Amino acid sequence: SPQYPDLNLIKYLWHSLKLELNAYPTKAKKIQKLWQRVEEQWATFTKKNCQQYIDSILVEINAAIKARGHNTKY
């Protein structure tokens, strides 16, 4: 049976978090500062954000099912 390792909801959250962390004007030079920023950004995620991620993954899942094991545009 086909497997789709990229059909992973958490990838959307991590991608968004990475974009937010990269938007800071300076890089965190210490792990404590990086962790502080991660916590700050994580706290900004809303139910609406999560629903958008769920909706996106559902589109990908449906495309994967329709492709019957072949490549999709995702």
From TrEMBL:
Q: Which organism is it from?
A: Mucor plumbeus
Question: Sorted alphabetically, which InterPro entries does this protein's record hold?
Answer: RNaseH_sf
Provide the protein name. Answer: Tc1-like transposase DDE domain-containing protein
Q: Name one GO molecular function term.
A: nucleic acid binding
Q: Which domain of life is it from?
A: Eukaryota
